[in-house]
């Protein structure tokens, strides 16, 4: 009876009570108990309606789970695949299922079809390659989905996206996609999650967030810390502004503090959405490295391709062109040096002749006795 009362939570009171009754009654209750709920699976711990099968080297979900199980932990085992056989009996009361750390690779169609009231599903810390979009029943009641540390290859995300976009997760409020290798989010990944309130994308190698990515009206908590964001486009900031209740975390990203950061800096100063804005620091350029973004002046946000340096380079270019023209000019002079010499001599000779003629005439003119002669010599 001890064992049974430990394994079948809700029936335990009845079972224990019956032990004080007649032997016949006790036997009846014992049989009823055996029929109504299986015993606790071997190597698992069962208390109340919680069953824990942790770090026991299970290769599959243990069968013969008590049918009144409400919370099930099968964690830290080695279960590469779960399929429609994994939960062969309907577990009407199961609301929380924890399957983290099982080296799970494949989550097949119909796996959770016998768990119609599942509210919280934890598939974190696995290596999921295949995730079927038919794993959950169409009318599921899932509210919390934990896929943290589950996707290590961003080329294997199509399954995840088809689940998120399947229009089946209508009651989902919390989605944890942290510590994954996501890199780029496709268009509208969360648009079919109308009740999504908490979204964690921390440490998921994300390099950009477009305005369409996070067009999720119900969203209240968005964690984008520790990604690879260098900037956010103005259209994304504008989208954030439309959702006044949104709380965003952006710390731990390598912000590039150049001239394109001015929109975001103004936005950060003007709006209160970013709760950790004091924690944002520049990673580039080297002069501003580690500087808190809010302490950077707008005038310090420069681009290496901006007007000043364009002007500078055009001056340098102009100088080079002028120097080239000068060199060509000198070269022409050098090649023509004989002609130029001749030309110089000609000029010099012409000058000398002229000067001599002038000098002679002057001498004649200065001697009145030779005045006539000078007139004749001019002729
Ligand atoms: C458990 O299963 C038995 C029959 O196998 C059924 O009578 C009982 O109602 C079930 N209990 C729950 C909580 O589903
Ligand atoms: C992830 O699971 C492995 C076992 O598969 C375990 O050793 C490790 O501690 C877990 N890591 C976290 C962060 O839970
Ligand atoms: C998801 O699971 C991890 C452990 O693997 C835990 O640290 C984290 O808090 C969980 N997230 C949610 C939203 O429960
Ligand atoms: C994943 O699914 C594809 C088809 O959807 C299949 O070809 C492949 O074998 C599956 N891989 C695993 C590990 O189950
Ligand atoms: C990711 O998956 C692709 C194809 O599915 C494979 O070629 C690649 O090696 C994988 N990368 C890692 C790091 O596992
Ligand atoms: C960040 O995610 C990677 C996997 O993408 C993981 O290996 C690493 O431990 C995570 N970092 C932290 C601090 O959790
Ligand atoms: C969202 O997360 C916060 C803590 O980060 C928690 O207090 C809140 O209850 C969560 N909301 C929902 C709907 O899960
Ligand atoms: C996103 O921005 C583009 C232009 O930057 C705009 O055409 C589009 O309508 C925006 N989408 C949303 C949902 O605001
Ligand atoms: C600051 O925000 C208010 C509304 O909160 C808006 O009217 C104003 O134009 C914003 N200023 C700048 C510089 O963005
Ligand atoms: C800022 O960063 C520090 C250290 O990483 C952390 O302790 C603190 O909680 C962060 N502040 C906010 C508002 O997140």
TrEMBL record:
GO CC entries:
plasma membrane
Question: Which GO annotations describe the biological process of this protein?
Answer: negative regulation of canonical Wnt signaling pathway
Which segments carry the region annotation Disordered? 1-20
Source taxon at top rank: Eukaryota
Q: Start and end of every LRRNT domain? A: 39-71
- UniProt keyword list: Leucine-rich repeat, Membrane, Repeat, Signal, Transmembrane, Transmembrane helix
Q: Which parts of the sequence belong to the LRRCT domain?
A: 253-304
Question: Which segment of the chain is annotated as a signal peptide?
Answer: 1-39
User: Which PROSITE patterns does the protein's record reference?
Assistant: LRR
Its transmembrane ranges are 315-335
Q: What is this protein called?
A: Trophoblast glycoprotein b
> What is the scientific name of the source organism?
Betta splendens
Gene name on record? Answer: tpbgb
